[in-house]
């Protein structure tokens, strides 16, 4: 049968069954619905044909000839969602078009028909993720792709079911990457079937949603820069879908898509890897994105990114978090700082492990998993916004002051970054009568070689050293009593997640509680001289002496 619009409904007069091949596909032909960048590269069609699938970074599994769609071999939420999305089956149809291998199309038809029969909408036999909003959005384009080559009433009926779920305003994820996927899916179904109102709704929603998800500066609002890559890629797919439908891409969509490139580039370290803020792994490496000329950018969405220079792996680089309360893929990382210098990560964060409901996952989201001040004896008030109240951006030096009441009292942090003669200084202050501890997560490649006198010296395997010095203010006296945690599990502390579902021990410096504490990070120096004269601090770095002023809770 053909998918034709009959008034406002789809014709469903074809006989039931696995489906009949479109007679025009005796020679494989490529279609816009099946080709493009919308399908993942793994598993390959060869793997699927052998009965094997592999998702994420988990080992491959054998699914067999007859599929148990409720199967959850790893009890992993992400694996189960990807399995239910059927995008891996869509790879078979796409490769059928390019290779002419009939077995690919036959197996894809069997798998999708099996899923449809096993997962009736509203039926008790459906798998847990069958009709969840995101798998529906990712699966619908697979069904559209198959419909270009197979005519069957079960397929037509499932497309209608998917469209109704996608069009339901109660299930729409506005201003979120899931909503974008929903828009693409509904648009594809509407254009494939001639159901104009579905296509109109999809384009209208996509235009409004993208303005919420990407602000006027090009910053993604989901509080995890790596999702900027996903949204950029998916918006490209969405714009292609609009064009395939014979429509003009709204200017606002194209504008926001293009502006996102600068945000992605700013959030990428000189090493080429994206700084792992929020639900973003340390192994994400963007490529091909246009970069701006500015080396420092303050995003009102809650980020400061700065570097010495572009296209130089040895450039110093830092990130600072502030802004709106936690949402979507964010962590409780406000006031968090990361620091990269002399070709090495120095200060990092625990990173992203997974979406599993585990104690470790929730620890990675907590303040203690980030480089932040934690007020002692005060309960943390989650989802508290943090304000950037002062900034000074010069070519060789930048400073920023942030404040909030995440612990019920005023918490203030000032960050100063000096370039050339690399140095990072952070001054944390809380009201008299209260004290705060600072957490400083070091890259796993760095191990302590000495501790004492208010300083911790670390080095890597090459012998390169860095020093963390802590001073009480305004006395400027060295503060001793730092605790080094590494690989602790009760409670969790001293871990870094370098990639999905992995964690490695890493040293964390926990400062003693103080009302006003200055932390100075000196990369490339194992025993820097630090002197104070009134409010002026002088530090001998690997490149030369650096002086700055520390007064009234500010650094300059």
TrEMBL record:
Localisation: Periplasm
GO molecular function, one term: lyase activity
Signal sequence region: 1-18
Domain Heparinase II/III-like C-terminal: 324-507
UniProt xrefs under Gene3D superfamilies: 2.70.98.70, Chondroitin AC/alginate lyase
Gene Ontology CC: one annotated term: periplasmic space
Record keywords: Lyase, Periplasm, Signal
Heparin-sulfate lyase N-terminal domain span: 59-230
Membrane among keywords: no
The protein, known as: Heparin-sulfate lyase N-terminal domain-containing protein
């Amino acid at each position: 049968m053909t998918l034709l619009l009959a008034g406002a409904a789809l014709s469903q007069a074809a006989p039931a069954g696995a489906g009949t091949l479109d007679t025009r596909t005796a020679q494989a032909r490529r279609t816009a619905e099946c080709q493009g960048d919308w399908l993942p590269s793994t598993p390959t069609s060869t793997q699927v044909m052998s009965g094997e699938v592999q998702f994420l970074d988990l080992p491959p599994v054998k699914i067999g000839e007859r599929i148990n769609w409720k199967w959850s071999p790893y009890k992993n939420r992400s694996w189960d969602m990807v399995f239910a999305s059927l995008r891996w089956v869509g790879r078979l149809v796409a490769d059928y078009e390019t290779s002419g291998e009939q077995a690919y199309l036959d197996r894809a038809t069997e798998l999708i028909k099996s899923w449809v029969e096993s997962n009736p909408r509203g039926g008790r036999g459906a798998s847990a993720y069958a009709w969840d909003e995101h798998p529906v959005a990712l699966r619908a384009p697979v069904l559209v792709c198959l419909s270009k080559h197979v005519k069957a009433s079960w397929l037509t009926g499932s497309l209608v079911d998917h469209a109704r779920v996608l069009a339901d305003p109660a299930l729409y994820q506005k201003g979120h990457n899931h909503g974008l996927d929903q828009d693409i899916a509904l648009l594809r179904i509407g254009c494939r079937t001639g159901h104009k109102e579905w296509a109109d709704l999809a384009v209208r929603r996509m235009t409004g949603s993208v303005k919420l998800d990407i602000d006027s500066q090009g910053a993604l609002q989901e509080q995890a820069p790596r999702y900027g890559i996903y949204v950029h890629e998916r918006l490209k797919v969405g714009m292609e879908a609009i064009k395939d439908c014979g429509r003009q891409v709204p200017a606002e969509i194209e504008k926001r898509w293009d502006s996102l490139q600068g945000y992605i580039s700013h959030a990428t370290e000189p090493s080429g890897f994206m700084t792992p803020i929020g639900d973003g792994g340390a192994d994400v490496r963007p490529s091909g994105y246009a970069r701006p000329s500015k080396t420092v950018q303050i995003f009102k969405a809650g980020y400061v990114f700065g570097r010495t220079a572009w296209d130089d792996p040895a450039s110093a680089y830092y990130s600072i978090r502030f802004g709106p309360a936690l949402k979507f893929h964010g962590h409780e990382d406000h006031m968090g700082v990361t620091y990269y210098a002399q070709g090495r990560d120095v200060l990092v964060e625990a990173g992203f492990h997974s979406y599993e409901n585990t104690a470790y996952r929730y620890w990675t989201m907590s303040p203690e998993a980030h480089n932040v001040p934690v007020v002692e004896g005060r309960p943390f008030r989650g989802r508290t916004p943090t304000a950037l109240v002062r900034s000074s951006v010069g070519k060789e030096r930048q400073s920023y002051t942030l404040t909030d009441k995440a612990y019920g009292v005023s918490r203030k942090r000032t960050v100063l970054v000096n370039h050339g003669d690399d140095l990072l200084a952070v001054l944390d202050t809380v009201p008299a009568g209260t004290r705060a501890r600072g957490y400083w997560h070091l890259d796993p490649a760095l191990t302590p070689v000495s501790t004492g006198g208010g300083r911790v010296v670390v080095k890597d395997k090459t012998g390169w050293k860095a020093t963390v010095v802590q001073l009480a203010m305004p006395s400027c006296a060295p503060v001793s009593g730092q605790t080094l945690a590494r690989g602790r599990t009760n409670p969790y502390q001293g871990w870094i997640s370098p990639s999905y579902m992995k964690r490695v021990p890493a040293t964390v410096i926990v400062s003693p509680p103080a009302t006003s504490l200055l932390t100075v990070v000196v990369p490339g120096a194992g025993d820097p001289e630090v002197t104070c004269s009134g409010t002026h601090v002088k530090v001998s770095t690997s490149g030369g002496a650096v002086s700055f002023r520390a007064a009234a809770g500010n650094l300059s």
